[in-house]
Structure formats: structure tokens, C-alpha cells
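TL;DR need C-alpha cells for one chain.
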Amino acid sequence: MRTIPVFAASLLIAAPLAAQTTTDPFPAAIEQTQGVIPVNFREFAAIPDLDGTPARIMTLFTERGTERIFVSDMRGPIYSVSYDGAPVAQYVNVNDPQWGVGVQSQGRERGIQSITFHPQFAQAGTPGYGKFYTWTDTDNVEPEADFLPAEGESHHTVLLEWTARNPRAPTYDGSAPRELARFQQPFSNHNGGHIAFNPYAAPGEPDFGLLYIGVADGGSGGDPQNMAQNLASGFGKLFRIDPLGDNSANGEYGIPADNPFAGDNNPNTLGEIYAYGIRNPQRFGWDPETGTMYLTDIGQNIVEKITTVPKGANLGWNTWEGSFRFVNREGVITANSRSDSNVVYPVAEYDQTDPIIQNQAAATGLLIYRDGPIVALRDKVLWGDSPSGEIFHFDANNPPMGGSGPVRRVLLNDGGTSKTFLQVIQEKNRAQGRDPANRTDMRLNAGPDNRVFLTNKSDGVIRELVP
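>> reply
TL;DR here they are.
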């Protein structure tokens, strides 16, 4: 049985909290000009408006077996896009009444959180043939949830498995999806996150065909029900499951035997958990050379962070916000930072008061770029800031040890002028006859042949970074 660290009261700083609490824990701002990488870009594809408003693009997934890119609008439609950007066609609408899903997409944070395709999707005769997965909020709260908060019910988030009869068909030709797992959400925010298979795991390797699921802490602010550190709770976790297995409590999926808490014989730990202490996991990904997993986690009101995720990791929330002791929404304690050896602290982080961010911050997107065609980006860990549209990088061969000092910018080269992603979107909005957006809601996405795509929720355009 694994021993879970207890944070004793003596570890909390003895001096008055108010005297040491700050909203600006990093003395130096993100460098605005040094180390900037300018990158060219082009408009790759346009996703259709829905009800007169731009597509709320949340996920872009490259399905290499059928040589298509799939793009989800948070409100329900999933589109297929060819590798050259045209044509764009609706593949399935998750919110179509015939499926009985009932996508809940009110506000900025609810809707289809993520989509992914089984690595055997296009391989006839394999267990994963034709299967893909959606992780979505729903207003259908009649079924009993598998994972409950301490109290409260706003809506539910469900993991669904879809099975296409012919994976190469232009539109989905299967029946209604199978429900694998259901979470009862106590609040309307911090609902789900990213779902993905490790794209570098080969058949026969332990990680092949296992689905990773980002589960946020349930919402409100500060994790009021203290679920992220509770190993009996499904909230504030990164799950790792076998979607084709059946040894879970509800019998709808499998729990890998090598998960960190699967064999501890402790009824108070969930076998699905791969890592915990997570607030709002937006994206995670793997380094193709080292196998290291990285995760972007949106902070409370102070620290945005990028963290490595070894198996069984405690990423600290809500005892820590980044490298610092979490107090409340108003601040963190900088004394005795990074002092708990049981916590995996960020490799890079920044605060929401940084002049570049301008008090609108949310770490998102994640891509470890190794051998792609853009030479200047090779061997970089890339991520973005969702509202501001800033794109950042650090050296993948020499990951930093926290703080904002190593964080450097990527800017978009628009006819010889360096611009942020938000500036590019605002110009497109004006050309579309729309008011310029005040945020991007951007994501970084991996494409075929090491291509990189930028998506957003403000103009419906997918852009590609190019040499």
C-alpha cells in the first residue's frame, strides 16, 4: 500500500500569512524581446460558423490511418479536414438528438472538451477498429454518475466511445455511442480537459491503447471540496484507463494493473489515477525522444504552469499553486517555495500579472517539437496562453526548474511584422465584419508530418506554422 504524504500544520509558514502573501511571485517579467522566435504562418482551413457565431474549436486531432484531420466545435459538430485543408465536412454532430447525448455548451468552459481516436481506428480486425472517443459536458443528468463530488450538481461530464462501421466513410456510419464513465460536476467551470492516447507507444508496449483523461478539480475556485489531493475522488486527476477493458467498478472500461494505485489494496484510492493534485488540465503531451509527459495546468489567480508528469505524481494543487504555497484566490506564499519532496513542481511557470499577459491568463496547448520543418522550433517545448494568444517555448534538451526566467516567446511573422496570435485574429475579425475579439481561446495542435496548427474560438480559422 502506498503511503500518502500528509501536509502537517507545521509546514505552513509560522509567520502571519498576510505579511508573506503576494499576487506577483516572480520578480522578473517574461522577457519580451530576448530569445523571441518569429515564425511564418498561413491560413490552412476555415471551420463553419454555427448559429452565426465562429466555431468554438477545442480539439484538432490527426488520424493518420485515414489521412484526415478531425476538428471539434465545443457545441457538438466534429468536422473532417483533408491534409491540404480542403474540403471541410461535418463528420458527426455529437449534439444531434438521435444520439441522446445532450451537449451542455453554455459559457466558455462547457461543451465537447476533447476528442481522440483509437490508434487502431483504421486497422481492420483489431479491437480498436472504428473506435473514437468524446469527452463532453451534458445536460442529461438522469443516469447515475460513476464519480461524485462531495456535494452539488451543475451538470455531468461523460466519456463516450463511438464505433464507425467503415472508418474511411466521409460521415459517421455507426450507432449511438457507448458510455464509459460519468462525472457529476458540482460547478459549471473546470469540467474536463484533454483525452489522448500516447502516440509514441507501439503495439505490444505497456502504454499502447491506454487512454489518458484529464479531469479538472470540479470548479468554483480554490478547490473548495479539497478533491484534487483526495485519492478517493476522481476530480483533480489524470486518469489512465483501457477503454476496451472491463475490470472497472462499472464494468465499462479497464484499469491497467501497472497504474500507481491499482494494486495497493487500499479501498480509499482509485485505480484509475495516474497523477493527482491537478487543477484544470488543458493539454498534455509526450516528448517523442525521451517519452517524458508534460502537462499545462491553469492556475487559480496567480500561477500558470507547465509540469512533467511521472507515474503517480502529485502536482501539488490545492496545497501548492505552482512552486508556492496556495493561500486563497488573493495570493500565494513565496517563503519555503518548492520545499515538499513529494510534490512534482513546474518546469516553467509565470504569473497572471506579467505585462505580456495583462491579467488574462490560462496555460494551454502543448507540443514538444523535435524534427519538424521549422528549424528554429526544433527541440523546443511549445505551449500557449489561451486568452492572450501568447506562444511560449523553452529548451526540451535542458528543461528548466521552475519560474518564468527561462520562458521565451514565439511571435507570428505577418509580412515582416511580428504579431501576437490575438493581433492576427483581431485583423481577421475586422475583415469578417466582426468586432475584434478580446481573447483568443487558442490551442496548439500537432498535425501530420510534424506540422503545427493554431486554433481559436474567435474567427473559425485554423492556421499552420510554416518554415
